[in-house]
Amino acid sequence: MFADSKENTMLPKVNPTHTSSWKKLQSHKEELADTRMSKLFEEDPERFRKFSLDFEDIKIDFSKNMITSETMSLLIQLTEEVKLDEAKEKMFLGDIINGTENRSVLHTALRNRSNQPIIVNDEDVMPDVNEVLEKMRVFSERLHSGDWKGYTGKKITNLVNIGIGGSNLGPKMVVESLKPYATKGIVPHFVSNVDGSNILEALESVDHESTLFIISSKTFTTQETMTNAQTARDWFVMQSGSEEAIGKHFVAVSTNTDKVRDFGINPDNMF
């Protein structure tokens, strides 16, 4: 979305296993081989305080890992040798560090709830990011409330995410981790395998009148994803007898507006 004209700076490439700190960590690991966790706590009553920290209302406790102050010192040395700080700075500055696509890496913008400007090519990318996040919020609330209905007026009770790699594992991880907070009455399904049994198993367990498909492909050309998406589309049209109804049962996570529109999805329902 944000094509970059900056000079490609790339990340520093240092193999961590070739550093002196890595070799020291290997020796250190051997030294700790026979150490018992209970002994570490006995020797240092302040261990929990030293090896835990607070982030807002989250307590992060790593005191029960087999580490010592020396371990932490060596790990810090490792970050220095692989130039981690330099890499982090490049990411936060919007430098081009994605060599495959010759673009910035803007995970930071997606997590930037402070709305501090993030500049790429003299442009603040945050307004565009916030626009899509707001669009997602409205979409989610319509699903949860039952306002989003299928072509026969039934509310959505099944979501089928079709994607591969991060477009499958990412949503799957979020659904699993937030399961205690899930809205009851909407069942998620995930299809990633190009083996036809994966999509057919999902289709056999849902009612086409109350199912929404989320097609996740940045380019909308990913072979595995689009093969499964086409199978789902053909199935839905056969069940409903209507191509026009596709717009109420398919949404897209993509950047390719033309391909999304050709598939039958309204770009308003593209994230």
Structural commentary:
- With 271 residues, the protein is of the alpha/beta class.
- 42% of the residues lie in helices and 14% in strands.
- It has eleven helices and ten strands.
- It has helices at 20-31, 37-43, 47-50, 69-81, 84-92, 107-110, 126-145, 166-177, 196-204, 223-240, 257-263, and strands at 52-55, 58-61, 96-98, 103-104, 119-120, 123-124, 158-162, 187-191, 211-216, 250-253.
- The protein has a four-stranded parallel β-sheet, sandwiched between helices.
- The longest helix has 20 residues, at 126-145.
- It starts with 19 loop residues before the first helix and ends in an 8-residue tail after the last helix.
- Mean pLDDT is 92; it is low at 1-5.
Give the SSE string.
HHHEEHHEEHEEHEHEHEHEH
Label the overall shape.
Answer: elongated
Structural class by sheet pairing and helices: alpha/beta
Question: Can you count the beta strands?
Answer: 10
Measured distance between first and last alpha carbons: 12 Å
**Can you count the helices?**
11
Average of pLDDT: 92
Beta content = 5-15%
Spatial sequence of strands, sheet with the most strands? 8-7-9-10
Helix content: 40-55%
Q: How big is the Rg?
A: 24 Å
Uncertain stretches: 1-5
Largest sheet descriptor: 4 strands, parallel
